[in-house]
Amino acid sequence: xxxxxxxxxxxxxxxxxxxxxxxxxxxxxxxxxxxxxxxxxxxxxxxxxxxxxxxxxxxxxxxxxxxxxxxxxxxxxxxxxxxxxxxxxxxxxxxxxxxxxxxxxxxxxxxxxxxxxxxxxxxxxxxxxxxxxxxxxxxxxxxxxxxxxxxx
Length: 152
Description:
Blueprint: H1 7-18, H2 33-48, H3 59-71, H4 98-113, H5 132-149
């Protein structure tokens, strides 16, 4: 299973991210490539407490849905609804300058992947509390999902 805890997996994501351009063609959804960069950054900021994302947890999302999302042997499907605080059309950070927003996402991925990252205070808005291994798996899968959205 790929995860941000494995340096090669992180390097693969960062390499694929470099292939995303302002005009990368969308494979599904409504986001632009630039909005996707901001969406992923907002998601990381929400986890580390730099952005407030209202929780939408329940017993199903914190058990069954979390286990399926993190461990099912298939990529996440298109069309998953996101929280309004990380939706760039609603409450997410508006895209500013493409290169800067891409560099900011790279910085957040690097920070999140640090081996000494303290995940104890983090809570996912849908999946709830997670172990460091689960956080690294979620981060890999979330970035992978959106890179695939733009053919990267």
